[in-house]
Structure formats: C-alpha cells, structure tokens
Amino acid sequence: QVQLVESGGGLVQPGGSLRLSCAASGFTFNRYTMRWYRQPPGKERELVAGISSADSSTNYADAVKGRFTISRDNVKNTVYLQMNSLKPEDTAVYYCNARSIFNEYWGQGTQVTVSS
Predict the structure, then answer these.
(1) CA-to-CA distance for 34 and 72, rounded, in angstroms?
(2) Strands (DSSP E) along the chain, which ranges?
(3) What pLDDT score was predicted for residue 85?
(4) Residue 20, exposed/middle/buried by CB under 10 A (0-12, 13-18, 19+)?
(5) How crowded is residue 89: how many other Cβ atoms within 10 Å of its Cβ?
(6) 72, 34 in Cβ contact below 8 A?
(7) Rounded to an integer, what distance in angstroms lies between the CA atom of residue 68 and that of residue 75?
(8) % of the chain beyond a pLDDT of 70
(9) Residues 53-99: tens digit of each pLDDT
(10) Do 90 and 81 contact (CB within 8 A), yes or no?
C-alpha cells in the first residue's frame, strides 16, 4: 500500500523555523520526483518546492526562495522541507507529493500556522 505521511507541522512565531518530514512507503521512492505543495485558508493549492529523482536538483516557488530548503534521504525514503524565517502568509496545510511518469501520490497534509 502506498503511503505518504507528513509530520512536523505546528504553531510557530513569525521569524521562526520548522522542519516538515514526509515518510514514503509502498513504491520505489528513489525513482520519483518529490514535491511539497501548500494550501492557505481559502486559497488554491500551490507548488512550494520540488526535488528530482535523478540528481536531486531542486526548484522553489518565488515566495519561499532563500527561506525554504527541500531535501531527500533515499535510504530513509523521506523528503524534508526546512522552513526558516517563517511569515504569517506561510500559514497553510502542507502536502507531500510523489510523481513519476506513470503515477502520482499524495499525503494527507500537515498544518503549519505562523502567528504571534
């Protein structure tokens, strides 16, 4: 059974940091591009960051460049999102996504709230 399980969300002050984790199982993790999406309250889901399967190249949304870092551990089958200098507008449900040419999987999401 395919599973993507996010963890690490919570409440943080503006300027603070969080690290999200997504534990993957049930598929060949190292052959999938991994992505983080987020959905702020009342808004559309948006791509935050991605990391490739082949060479671990990364890409980021303009809104998070310089603040967030995506990484993957192909031994632990886990993808991470290190979030620094958090802003209230980063508040959202964050979703883990795995994608190959033929398949796509989603996690259930983890809540991140940035508030003073």
Answers:
(1) 8
(2) 3-7, 10-12, 18-25, 33-39, 46-51, 58-60, 68-73, 78-83, 92-99, 104-106, 110-114
(3) 98
(4) buried
(5) 10
(6) yes
(7) 22
(8) 100
(9) 988 899 999 999 999 999 999 999 999 999 999 999 999 999 999 99
(10) no
* Residue 51 vs residues 1, 16, 25, 34: alpha-carbon distances, Å: 23, 24, 17, 5
How far apart are alpha carbons 101 and 94 in whole angstroms? 23
CB 81 within 8 A of CB 68: yes
Tell me the two tokens of residue 6: 């996010």
SS3 89: helix
